[in-house]
Amino acid sequence: MRKTLLLLMVICAAIWLFGFDIETSVSLKGDLSGKASVRVTADIEGFLQGMAGIWRHMPGFKAPTPAEIHQRALAVVAAAAAKKPEDLERQRAELGKSLPPGVKLASIALQYQGTTMLSQLDFDFDDVRKLWQIQLPQSPNNLLQPGAASRPASQATKAADSSSEAADPRSLPYRDFYDRPFYGLVVNDMSTMVSVMVTFANPVAFARLVVPKQGTIPARDEALRPFEGSRFIFKLDSPLAVHETNATRHDEHSLLWEIHVADPDAKTQEILVAFLKR
To answer: Burial of 268 by CB count in 10 Å (0-12 exposed, 13-18 middle, 19+ buried)?
Structure first.
């Protein structure tokens, strides 16, 4: 039981790193240059509530009260918002240096409200096939993780970190998102056709797969409840005509995929596909 709960705890921590609401978009020109952005919205209080749902089932640990959770979430967001301008500029410079040739950081937007944090990075690129190479600096200098360096370590987190039974979040298939937000994007230019494929690994569906219902279902359900409204959105627009796609919605030149990660029928891995005609 303890091993399963520790695994669930680490998975949920990694899901928080993955984000609550993620939107990536690519605006593609005919020569495959264009603009791209990644936007992450995270509800810190919701995450801590989910972790508390696990702590309640962990022998020897006392779960925090709702008031304590709220105050801790406010503290995390406040610490992230208190970054000095020179720190942000240093992060921006570090990210700019790390980008592949032909990809430039266009802008950064960081917003903090209550217990919610929003991060957005915008890029210009000369070839969309270079986006997968974007690798963001490790925390605490990762601009998509504005609260990572200031998160207070809980007793349960320390126990998970020190336990040889706990999984390393970086070994989980979705952990790469913060480090490489476009890693699942594959574009092929086939002369008269351009194919676009995005592979999305769903962390909530993965948690349901690896943590069985029997015995731990209360802890699992409480831990995953904050993610019920979470979405992964991918937008693509281009002057090229849409020939064939599995997009949620599309018109002649714009496509949108929307995945509600907590849907009961959600797959552990989704393949988003579009064929654009020149």
So the answer is: middle
What is the C-alpha to C-alpha distance for residues 127 and 30, in angstroms, rounded to an integer? 10
Amino acid at 227: F
Which stretches does DSSP call E strand in the chain? Answer: 21-28, 34-43, 103-113, 116-125, 185-189, 193-201, 231-237, 241-245, 249-250, 254-260, 269-277
Q: What is the pLDDT of residues 220-275, one digit of tens each?
A: 666 666 677 788 899 999 999 999 999 999 998 999 999 987 787 888 788 999 99
d(CA 44, CA 59): 24
The Cα 123–Cα 95 span in angstroms is: 11
Judge contact between 105 and 146, C-beta under 8 A.
no
Q: Residue 200 sits in which domain range?
A: 2-277
Lookup: tokens for 63: 């779960």
Q: How many domains does the chain have?
A: 1
Q: pTM of this prediction?
A: 0.76
Cβ–Cβ under 8 Å, residues 24 and 182: yes
Q: Rounded to an integer, what distance in angstroms lies between the CA atom of residue 275 and that of residue 112?
A: 38
Q: 3-state secondary structure string, 12-25? A: HHHHHHHCCEEEEE
The 10s digit of each residue's pLDDT in 37-73 is 999 888 888 778 777 766 666 677 777 888 998 999 8
CA angle centred on 89, ends 231 and 175, rounded to 5°: 30
Q: Are the C-beta atoms of residues 121 and 144 closer than 8 Å to each other?
A: yes
